Structures
1.
Amino acid sequence: MCGIIGIISNKEVTSRIVNSLRKLEYRGYDSAGIATLVRGNINEVKCEGRVDALEKDINKFNLKGEIGIGHVRWATHGKPSKINAHPHSSEEVSVVHNGIIENSTILKKFLEKKGYVFKSQTDTEVIAHLVTEYLKKNSLKETIIKVLKKLHGSFALGIIFKGQNDFIVGARRGSPLAVGYGPNENYLGSDSYALKSMTNKISYLDDGDFCIIGKDQVQFFDNKGVKKNNKVFNLSKEDLNYEKGDYKYFMEKEIEEQPSTINDCINEYIDKHSNKINIFNFPWKVNNFKSIVLVGCGTAFHSCLVAKYWLEQNTSLDISVDIASEFRYRKIRFKKDSLYIFVSQSGETADTYAALDLCKQNKMKTCAIVNVIESSIARDADMVLPIYCGQEIGVASTKAFLGQMLVLYILCTKISFDQKYINKKVYQSKIKNLLSLSNSTKKTLKLDQKLLDIGKVFANSKGSMFLGRGYSYPIALEGALKLKELAYVHAEGYPAGEMKHGPLALIEEGMPVVVLAPRDEHYKKTISNMQEVIARGAKVLLITNKNKDEVISENIWEKIEVDQLDQELIPFLITIPLQKLAFYSALEKGFDIDKPRNLAKSVTVE
Ligand code: F6R
């Protein structure tokens, strides 16, 4: 998704803007650009494609400057092209923008009548002209207030002004924006990660606010222009040097890291001396609520679906799960005795944030499960449970999915014990089982010899299906999502028992099908469903777990057996072969594994 960087300094800024744009590459983008002031005049360089190409052009035109803004664009209005790349400039100002201006067509007509000529098909260009128009009769502050009022939709903005070497303006509504503080220089960034190589001192703009960033000071204002003091956070530096190391792809590294990220998370939440769960910041009594609503998008949504099974099994609460983009537009009957949990790796997903915001407006109890603890969702929820898995760069979420499930499982176990739904013995045995999870994931990672060849078959298929029952059903959805997004192969996740109600018609000779059949209460039924697809010609990859009894079924194409572990923890293990399957399928196709086409890591538009 789009990314913004701005630097004001008394030193050259161009190369640092380019480096920071590289840090934002993980978000997914299709074009890039930069604008600086050279002797007070706006100079821009833009290109379609990667930041490397932008850097070449910057060197060709020898673009320099001590104040500048840069952008990586993920197309929304207008195709990816040099013209549509940001910044968008008028004679007077240059603008970078994340988000969508919903009333851009009306504003464009208004500006065209006044004689403004548009070069791009973007919604952003209206902002450059609107600022130019208001500046004619208003002070800088009045202009910003009036322009922000005119804009409908979501945005994070960075603006520089002709002849004004002393400041950059930042503003946000809906999309996040951060300010960083350095020695005799300051920065603007769409996320703290872009700024981390320059500073660990960060402030965040509140929704609807704007700021004026000088070399030596930053002023924050609300939407009426009233001055504010924003808190300065000292960010942890641990993620600063997150690199690929010996791996060729971040995704590969992130899959392999899972035993240690699981360990890190367990160390944060489990006191190994007392065998107890440490969630000290839980501000409510569990008896105060009767239901839990879990909300997320994509992979995060799948972790919520797994948690529904855990919570229903282990607590007396009513559990429901919602996709954030649906939740925010439904006529929800908010209940005071509900806890609303928002799950998001980035903590910036626009739909999930909007769903949280809706709950806050209705004065609901909210909890965020995030990876990025400085994110908007983490900052705005009543309580935060981080997943502690470190920076995730690969667009396809892997270690964060296991981290989300882990925190949800730990929370479920805490609630279950606090509710007295389980006794101390069961509670402690659940904790003991959790302590062996990391080791079992390590063993599962070694099971990948066959997956390289299996991946080739899935990569070259017309389509595939992923089937499971119970906890394995959301994992089937997750496996199918991973294959779709990485290998661009049509894949469907389905409850195994639902096949005969329609999708069985899709099965034909040679179609690869993953059947998730761990030795749980559903095992026998899932094996029957597997036989039904084998009988119709499917090539079945069976993922199950070790047991003294052999699987009784003929004609299974391939079988992978993960560790025998407590049933409830099996979702963690059976996910890993599916992550690797998608990885090898994408490898076979030669696709960009860390940045699949059309996708972005942090989805900050609706
Ligand atoms: C898929 C994937 C996405 C994200 C989704 C939500 O591999 O990564 O489906 O899970 O966009 O993102 P977050 O968790 O950042 O809210």
Note: The chain has a mean pLDDT of 92.
2.
Amino acid sequence: MSRDQIESLQLTRLQETLAYAYERVPLYQRKFDEAGVRPEDLKQVGDLARFPFTTKEDLRAEYPFGMFAVPMSEVARVHASSGTTGRPTVVGYTKEDLDTWATLVARCLRASGVRPGMKVHNAYGYGLFTGGLGAHGGAEKLGCTVIPMSGGQTEKQIQLIEDFAPDAILCTPTYLLTIGDAMLHRGLDPRATSLKYAVLGAEPWTQEMRHELEEMFGIKACDIYGLSEVMGPGVAGEAVETQDGSHIWEDHFRPEILDPFDLSRTLGDGEQGELVFTSLTKKALPIIRYRTKDLTALLPGTARPGHRRMGRISGRTDDMIILRGVNLFPSQIEEIALRIPELSPHFQLELTRPAGRRMDELTVKIEPREGTTPEQRRHAGATLKQQIKIHIGSSCHIDVVEPGALERSSGKLRRIYDRRNEA
Ligand code: DLL
């Protein structure tokens, strides 16, 4: 589809979605009324900016099923995201929604190099998390043989990869690294496996990490993006021939980028801000201007010209550290650390304010590579400190810990901020 075709499709679908949501979901009716807007007020796509946002808090307040636009008898499945505190956010799908979801994940997998008939090892977690079943549905829809391994049990993952000889693996980038490290630890060569493609997402990752994983396994690694409130994995996917960021499937989602400091300002393509989505075809849970809190920019389409790409996620609005006035995202530290060969991508940031001090202090705890000498570790730590000062402009403490000392997870990479001392 051309850009023009997509934009005119978006207009019709937006009009339909706004009317559908207003009519069926009390929360939307309330919010639209409060904002003084009616679905008919959308005459062109840009009018969407007049409509109110939806947030995670809205979904929590309507827990569990208050935002569903269809009777429960038409809800074929629910998923939920755990959240750090309080109630989980619950999302629902009709049969038709599940079919659309599978079609879009299949589109992502195909773009990333996976083909019908291939064997796909799915190591995203199954259960309430959308990753496992979402990726599963897409791989099945594409016509692959799915190995529903789920996350965790790294030894078993390795055994099945050896025995079942899959062509592709689906998991988080950090978990693929964990599998690779575990193989090396056991004296196995990750490059000798049957794997040719990896479709990785659910957490931010960098070009450096891509390079590392592609080298480690001898594969092509592509990104897949999504979030449960908007659908799950498959909102956007990356093409293997260009590997230049995920294309957002704009026939099903209308993206916007907003100024994170002034949400009334819509930013143009190429500008970094908060990503906001409106669903265009979802039935069970239509979502209007959902604030993802993810920071990125919209870029013109390349391999799929009708759809725009998203830049990589440079952070989350709620992850941003303001260190003595400098805005800083954990991904910036990762990018710098990965350029230092003696350091691994496993790190944690700690933000503290020592008693009696007026300023926050940042400590980067980072693991070195296996086999590095104490001297190399000291040197790598000093280089990291210096590079952070040059590129970010902040001084920090570096603590090069022992390899394997920091907490790992098979799901999301967790950065731990110690904000106890924050004023
Ligand atoms: O993580 C859905 C998913 C599963 C995507 C498997 C890709 C693969 P949630 O648990 O709702 O859904 O978390 C959504 O994760 O707002 C981003 O902050 C982050 N995220 C997801 N994919 C990427 C990605 C799933 N490719 C939140 N790059 C989103 C960076 C990502 N961040």
Note: Confidence is low (pLDDT under 50) at residues 416-423.
